[in-house]
TrEMBL record:
Its cofactor is Mg(2+). Pathway: Amino-acid biosynthesis; L-serine biosynthesis; L-serine from 3-phospho-D-glycerate: step 3/3. This is phosphoserine phosphatase. GO terms for molecular function: L-phosphoserine phosphatase activity; magnesium ion binding. It comes from the Bacteria. Residues 361-430 form the ACT domain. PANTHER family: PHOSPHOSERINE PHOSPHATASE (PTHR43344). One of its GO terms (biological process) is L-serine biosynthetic process. Keywords: Amino-acid biosynthesis, Hydrolase, Magnesium, Metal-binding, Serine biosynthesis.
Length: 430
């Protein structure tokens, strides 16, 4: 059966509400601009949370805009820079499924179309309102006959489209949930990468903090193999706020605790620790999913590096007490998770990798013994895998190899790589 993906625009495809941004452009020199901004934002949120009708909100916002056609070019330039990170990452999915992806929004085609079409979205698959202009180009209203301008507009529109297949809805607002409530779509995914509206997410079939998460749970092709929001990053002790901000902004699931609570150890994927806090061997052994540790000080004597090597855990620390370690260390941790970079790690071979294009990246951590590369590449050869690029570095008893491959692989390939007797850890990055 065919699948359709109904995607909202404001605060979903983009990080912002477009009419709010348009107001900041059109009212830049208005003496009461802050009061008007606040009222437009209030009307936006009231409709998105289902507290007032969409038509009441839309009419009120358009009236307050005092905008002209000339302001739209500036708005479009801003919106193109504000596309949600996970949508930018998954441009290939959008292009590959351009027959199935529909943008359905209470926003306006005049600014939506130029923002989404570079991502492969077909113009005929964009459903939105349209502005009305006077001869001078001033926005004086909108086409009120368009169902998307009315309360329950998305439901009314979808009823007329008669799509034959399974339909999924992705959005952040009440109008998106109404599609599920109507019974017209299979599942509603509350998109929370930019904003979470509790009144909406509490009613959703699934909360998706990114498009990666949606693609993952539906077994669809995606830019990264495992959504970052599912990687638990445990922050322990008196860590600078900038450290927390950087890792949260990157999309990791954050827990910040004063002490290293053992209940989190079995699930933790990243561990950022304040100077002066130790991690004992028993705690490390419980952290079977742990990939990297960041230590805001010198980790020597407080973290067992040999045990980390045995478990395939990469350590980044700050043995010289640099002022900006609160920024530097989290960025190194994120680069390892995102790209496989181990540059400036304390215990692993230092490798800084080029950006990967149109390939899958596999990370193999192993004991540094003779013949290991032959074993790894023999597995690829037996599965007829074309290697695009391969990078190997060693340090002491640790070998670290990155392999970019150009075609799909099955679980049997991964199983055989893991079964190589000296394997410590295998990770699929993309």
């Amino acid at each position: 059966m065919k699948h359709y993906y109904i995607i909202d625009f404001d605060s979903t495809f983009t990080q912002v509400e477009a009419l709010d941004e348009l107001a900041r452009i059109s009212l830049e020199h208005h003496p009461a601009r802050e009061l008007i901004y606040n009222e437009i934002e209030r009307l936006t949120n009231a409709a998105m949370e289902g507290n007032i009708s969409f038509r009441e909100s839309l009419a009120g916002r358009v009236k307050l805009l005092q905008a002209n056609k000339s302001h739209l070019d500036k708005l479009i330039a801003i919106l193109k820079k504000k596309v949600s990170s996970s949508f930018s990452r998954n441009r290939d999915f959008l292009k590959a499924h351009n027959e199935d992806v529909l943008i359905v929004s209470g926003g306006f085609k005049e600014f939506i179309t130029p923002v989404v079409t570079p991502y492969g979205i077909k113009t005929e698959n964009i459903y939105a309102n349209t502005f009305l202009f006077d001869p001078a180009g001033n926005i004086i209203g909108y086409d009120e006959s368009n169902p998307l301008s009315d309360e329950g507009g998305k439901v009314k529109l979808l009823k007329t489209m008669d799509l034959d297949g399974t339909i999924y809805g992705i959005g952040d607002g009440y109008s998106d949930f109404q599609l599920k409530e109507s019974g017209l779509i299979e599942k509603f995914y509350a998109f929370t990468e930019n904003i979470e509206r509790k009144s909406v997410s509490e009613k959703a079939d699934h909360i998706t903090p990114s498009l990666d998460e949606f693609l993952y749970v539906n077994h669809l092709p995606r830019a990264i193999s495992y959504p970052k929001n599912r990687i638990l990053c445990l922050i322990v002790g008196d860590v600078p706020e900038i450290s927390v901000h950087l890792l949260r902004r990157d999309g990791f699931s954050i827990r910040h605790k004063e002490t290293l609570e053992e209940k989190y150890l079995k699930d933790v994927g990243m561990l950022l620790i304040a100077n002066g806090i130790s991690v004992n061997n028993e705690q490390l052994k419980q952290a079977e999913k742990l990939k990297t540790i960041g230590y805001l000080g010198n980790s020597k004597g407080v973290i067992n590096r040999d045990l980390c090597n045995e478990m395939g855990i990469v350590i980044f620390d700050d043995k010289k007490g640099k002022k900006r370690s609160g920024e530097f260390i989290p960025k190194r941790m994120a680069d390892f998770i995102n790209k496989g970079d181990t540059a400036m790690s304390r215990n692993f071979p230092n490798m800084q990798l080029p950006r990967m294009h149109q390939a899958h990246r596999l990370i193999h951590i192993h004991q540094n013994v003779p013949g290991i590369m032959a074993q790894i590449n023999n597995v690829f050869a037996e599965h007829h895998i074309n290697i695009v690029a391969q990078f190997l570095m060693t340090k002491g008893n640790i070998g670290y190899v990155i392999t970019d491959i150009s075609k799909g692989y099955d679980d049997k390939l991964l199983k055989e790589l893991k079964q190589i007797i000296t394997t410590i850890k295998l990770r699929i990055l993309y």
